[in-house]
Amino acid sequence: MPGTKRLRRFEPRFGVSQPMLDEESRWVKQEWDDYLLLSVNELKETLIKRQAMLVAHAANLSHGLSRLPERERLAIQCMLARDFIHIGLLFETCLATPPDDSAEHDVPLSGPSPSSVTFETLPFRTSLFDT
Known about the structure:
Elements: H1 18-35, H2 40-66, H3 70-95, H4 102-105
Helix pairs in contact: 1-3
């Protein structure tokens, strides 16, 4: 049974061209927009979890590489460096243009415009319950 076709493709084996980076960066931007739906606290929690996973995988990878003979270890390290370069180029391409904020502006505002609204200044109180 053939494998499923994916929208995104990570295939730097034969080189990565700018059109490939432009195409893949569209999908990265979509994922970026998806992450922007999360709160700052949710993003912080996600980052902490991912960084912990990264540390664990880096330790496992380092241990596995240390057991290889020099030639095999160097080959894997070359592949890893190539893949990191590809990921860096991909995110550089994605960051060249900011995320699409048009979705926030598509919804018309009802009522007065935010710039025309004024708020009454309240006197300072040491407690919310003082009258």
